[in-house]
Design a protein that fits this description.
The structure holds two protein chains of two kinds. Chain A contains twelve helices and 14 strands. Chain A is an alpha+beta fold. The chains are: A alpha+beta, B alpha+beta. The interface between A and B is medium-sized, with 29 and 32 residues.
Amino acid sequence: MKPPPFEYLAPEDFDAALEAVAEHGADAKLLAGGQSLVPAMNFRVTQPAVLIDLNRVPGLGDVRPDGSSGLLIGAMTRQRRLEFDSEVKRAAPLLAEAVPFIAHPQIRNRGTLGGSLAHADPAAELPVIALALEARLHAVSKRGDRWIEAADFFQGMFTTALEPDEILRDVALPSPRNGTGWAFEEFARRRGDYALMGVACLVHLDDAGQCDRARLVFLNAGDGPVLAVEAADMLQGRPLSAESARAAGRHASEKEIQPLGNLHARPEFQRHLARVLAQRALLTAAERARRPAKPS
Amino acid sequence: MPVEHRPIHLTVNGKATQASVEPRLLLSDFLRHDLDLTGTHVGCEHGVCGACTILFDGEPIRSCLMLAVQADGHEIMTVEGLAAGPEHMHPLQEAFWKAHALQCGFCTPGFLMTLIPFLNANPDPSPMEVREALSGNLCRCTGYQHIVDAVVLAAANLREARQAAG
């Protein structure tokens, strides 16, 4: 299992990288952390004519404050950094909570935020977190740049809104409103395996303790991260209790996700997991919303 | 299509090394075939088994998921860099031996290279933390229990040695 030959380009600044994608476009693949791309090349499932390695481009791996409380994260930021970064823990605790579920430390040492988002694997954690947090993705090409909402970015299995001459450069994470609770839950057969099902959720409670905002996003539940809009609506304007969490989890798992099933789980089992994990995540998030400002 | 080679300069086990490599050459194959460092084992070649784990700038990575050309300018440590020879084993190797943490030995180099930085960062790990740390390495022989024992033993020995050294 070896990759077939390809032309290797390792631009040393961002402009040179833009030149390279502009020239080679759809014949090229961008190499970020390589933790999904290189296995695919080893299997020869992917055979790019040109490989553009972004690892020599400086300045793409920073975590910076953005606006009053959000974060601007460079696309080449390694997942291992996100796991331990104090700014991430403060401003995006949902992201910090989810990252340790991504494969293994060896993988997270190389794997990047932008690489995972651009790969758009429906079973991956980071697209789910990006959609849950309403991330905005900064795509740059020689023609100019644009910001893409996470909801528009993921367009299906391994498919994104990125054009062949665009590079995903930054990810902006708005910080959820003060007092927002968060939780990430997933179920995998072994630690680090692709999860059979997973869910990220955010919950905000008003002064009377009623839920005034909820957001639920599932992984491995369709052809991309799946936002359960109706289940979130069901929670609005009432206290978040074990009963309402159970009802929302049931609705999302029965009506709003489309798990495809695989060798290890039939879709019915995935739906069962979605119901249980959603309920659990909602209750954890509600609990954290009740005692805010104490990121772990 | 003529086969194109790229010059690379890197440090392997403390030694400055240069070579000329085809861009598609995996780092794992470069270590084994070009440098003859066959202690790095190749199991699955798609990032699942962990046998090819090495240290890249001090952090454990899968060498089958990197290209040799990407190592240009970087520092690599393989299992061969751990100790001078059988008479001078690294305390972690010593503990693997004492606790019977290997049988066929195929996975062992990957376990060792995963656990060296783990023990540096976490000198007194609980057995659960050890299990978590080695979750990215597969072993078909031991059932892992003896590996966990070995890591706990190595951690204790390393702490003692550190204390003795003041």
